[in-house]
Write a structure and sequence with these properties.
Layout lengths: L11 H12 L3 H8 L3 H8 L20
């Protein structure tokens, strides 16, 4: 096993919270963290599900009949 990424924290609680956050990340997101490609982390963090509010129409028009 090799250490791929490390980060220093002044507060142990912050370190634990960061570790828990990273544990649930996808492999792609962890890879860009290791490569320090922080712009890509933001892109991978965005929700791309159709159900996300970003993709819902702002208003629905109902036809009367």
């Amino acid at each position: 096993m090799k250490l791929k990424y490390s980060l220093a924290f002044n507060n142990v609680i912050h370190a634990i919270l960061f570790e828990k956050q990273v544990k649930v990340w996808t492999r792609a997101k962890k890879t860009v963290l290791i490569n320090e490609d922080f712009d890509s982390i933001q892109l991978l963090a965005e929700c791309r599900n159709f159900t996300h509010s970003k993709y819902k129409p702002t208003s629905l028009r109902l036809r009367s009949g």
